[in-house]
Specification:
alpha+beta, 2 domains
């Protein structure tokens, strides 16, 4: 069964998140929802150039890249596409570590380029 998330724009994320709602604060560049596996954990995703990218089409949310809740006991892994949860495959501990290193290196390169650009000004 495909789960759906209803998009709800907010200024601040609420303290208590409701199941089936995908909250987005454009002002604070953050999104939040409850883990779709049903474990009840809050999933907070920062939005931005080096974080998750949010888009909206006809009131349906898309988030890129996938969400891997590797630090949670459920270890759920899924995509949010056009307001629907698309389940993905599990990652091994080795794959998770490799993915974290790749993301860390991407951030480092981005901020190094940004710093070099600002020094030229």
């Amino acid at each position: 069964m495909t789960k759906t998330l209803k998009l709800f724009h907010v200024e601040y994320l609420p303290k208590e998140l409701e199941p089936g709602i995908f909250y987005v604060s454009k002002e604070f560049k953050v999104a939040g929802h409850l883990c779709p596996c049903g474990c009840g954990n809050k999933i907070i995703t920062p939005l931005g150039r080096m974080e998750w990218k949010f888009s909206e089409n006809n009131g349906e949310a898309t988030l890129y890249p996938s969400i891997g809740n590797w630090q949670l006991p459920c270890r759920s892994h899924y995509w949010i596409r056009k307001g629907k949860i698309k389940w993905s495959y599990s990652w091994s501990d080795e794959r998770i570590e490799k993915g974290r290193k790749v993301e860390e290196e991407k951030r480092k390169q981005y901020y190094d380029r940004l710093q070099a650009k600002n020094k030229k000004k």
